[in-house]
Amino acid sequence: MAGDALTAAPAAERGGMAPQQRSALFSIAAAVFLLALKLITGLAAGSLALIAEAAHSGTDLVAALLTFYALRVALRPADRDHPYGHGKAEHLAALGEGAFLLVVSGVIVFESISRLTGKHPGEVDAAWWAFAVLGIVLAVDVSRSVVSFRASRRYNSAALAANALHFASDFAGTLAVVVGLAFVRAGYESADAWAALFVAGLVILAAIRLMRQNVQVLMDQAPSDAAEITRAVIADVEPHAEVRRVRVREAGGRAFVDAVLGVAPDAAVGQGHAVADNVERAIQEALPRSDVTIHIEQRESSDLRERATGAALSVRRVREVHNVRTVVVDDGRTELSLHVKLPADETLTEAHRIADAVEDAILAAAPEISSVHVHLEPLAGALAATVPPPAEFEDLRARLEVIARDVTGSPTRSLSLHREPRGIVAFMTIALPGDDTLATAHEAAARIESRAESTLADVAAVIVHTEPA
Q1: Is the predicted pLDDT of residue 6 greater than 50, yes or no?
Q2: If residue 103 lies in a helix (H) or strand (E), which one and from where to where?
Q3: Model confidence over 302-347: pLDDT tens digits?
Q4: CA-to-CA distance for 428 and 463, rounded, in angstroms?
Q5: Percent residues over pLDDT 90 in the chain
Q6: 363-378 mean pLDDT
Q7: Predicted confidence (pLDDT) per residue in 129-182, tens digit
Q8: Strand (E) or helix (H) holding 331
Q9: Model pTM?
Q10: Torsion angle in degrees (nearest 10) through CA of 14, 16, 19, 20
Q11: CB 377 within 8 A of CB 339
Q12: Which long-range contacts (CB under 8 A, 24 or more apart) does 425-428 make?
């Protein structure tokens, strides 16, 4: 359904006719044919019920014309003045159709009561050809109702759904006219006026229902179950995200969803963006053709490290925060230290100002901290490195393997070396028991790095990656 509807808009933009518009054009042709047929037959037979049905077809003609125009507007893409698109044109047209139906129905009710009370009596000729015409009308009513209903379901169009509703009520009204004329033929002259009242009642009920549905859409009433579906999707895709607000409205068969989610205060911008992307994709799958906007905020947290990290990352120009440590001093004070990375071209004066802003932000987010110590670091740029031939460092490789085996009890999974301006850097992967804690694994890696860097003079740094055995 989404694919068909989405391809319709480009067709309209190119000057072609979208499938929805072709369906509306078929409705216009059918309404013109039925209006002429019913009106001529009703006047010839003197049947108020058939004239009422002609008036009903006249409203259908207006409705079909409004639908055709509304679809041309609704299928236009969003622009600068209409960022949400033009979908509400369908609902405005449907509202106008409903109001017009009420006016015409009032006229028919008045004339029917006048005939029943004898103020304006009329003679009805229930000839055989009137029944033949009504048979043709019934066949056309069925065909156009089915066509419009299928199109409204396929393209989720309120305007086409309104057309289908009108045509279905036409069918019921035509049946009432057939029954009324049958009773007139049997000698009950007032049956035609009663049939006209029945038709008018059908039209009034359909108009009220149509107007109520479209007023709800124009008032931005949330589509049925859409908010619940959205919340369920978010809970399934991002169970750790806090749902702070979900709002859904509908226009032109499309749901517009906006939601506010809370994530961990220390989540990086990229992590928050990934959460938003995952949620948007999942909602669009659950609600086809939906337009989804996700806003990410920091959620409340009782974890001191999370609050401190989130506060530091909120300061402009701070690019990275690591080595966040809290220390409870024996006199009851809590101190916090962290490393903050800034662009390397910052002046020391500006960097110090940023460090002060980081301290203020952390103290505001975590008042229980007594003091903050900020270690400033420049963001490192790309370094030039060379890879030495394997034979050049065979002895160094062997000594690194010995250190790794002493710490872990097993050989390395991979070991590579390259030379940077600061010296030789080793990249090592080791295997440890999978049920070890991360703290235990990090301690093992740190022991390898410390021993290698302290005992091997040529080694500037060892970077150890741990994997489960």
Answers
A1: no
A2: helix 88-116
A3: 888 888 988 998 898 888 898 999 998 888 889 999 999 998 888 9
A4: 6
A5: 23
A6: 92
A7: 777 777 887 887 787 778 777 877 776 666 567 667 766 767 777 777 777 777
A8: none
A9: 0.51
A10: 80
A11: yes
A12: 425/385, 425/459, 425/460, 425/461, 425/462, 425/463, 426/400, 426/452, 426/459, 426/461, 426/462, 426/463, 427/463, 427/465, 428/400, 428/404, 428/462, 428/463, 428/464, 428/465
CA-based nearest residue to 267, from 325, 321, 327, 340: 321
pLDDT band at 14 (very low <50, low <70, confident <90, very high): very low
Is the separation of the CB atoms in 223 and 250 below 8 Å? yes
Of the candidates 222, 266, 250, the residue with the CA atom closest to the CA atom of residue 362: 266
Position 71 pLDDT exceeds 50: yes
Query: Cα 461 from chain centroid?
Result: 48
CA separation for the pair 305, 55 (Å, rounded) = 74
More confident residue, 16 or 259: 259
Whole-angstrom Cα distance, residue 324 to residue 191?
89
Flag whether pLDDT at 37 surpasses 70: yes
E strand or H helix at 443, and its extent? helix 438-455
Residue listed under structure tokens 């149509």: 210
Which residues on adjacent β-strands are paired with residue 371? 335
For CA atoms 13, 16, 22, 25, give the dihedral sign. Answer: positive
> Tell me, what's the pLDDT at 24?
62
What is the pLDDT of the chain when averaged over all its residues?
Answer: 79
User: CA–CA separation, 206 vs 167, rounded Å?
Assistant: 11
Buried-state track 218-242, b at ≥16 Cβ within 10 A, e below 16: beeebbeebbebbeebbeebbeebe
CA distances from 362 to 275, 302, 352 (A): 25, 14, 15
Beta-bridge partners for 338: 374
For residue 441, give the H/E element and its range.
Answer: helix 438-455
Contact call for residues 65 and 14 (beta carbons, < 8 A): no
Strand 320-328 and strand 242-251: the pairing is: unpaired
Question: SS3 of 84, please?
Answer: coil
Strand-strand pairing, 414-420 and 371-378: unpaired
Set out the domains of the chain in order of their start, with CATH numbers. Answer: 2-218 (1.20.1510.10), 226-298 (3.30.70.1350), 304-378 (3.30.70.1350), 390-468 (3.30.70.1350)
Return d(Cα 199, Cα 167) in angstroms, integer.
13
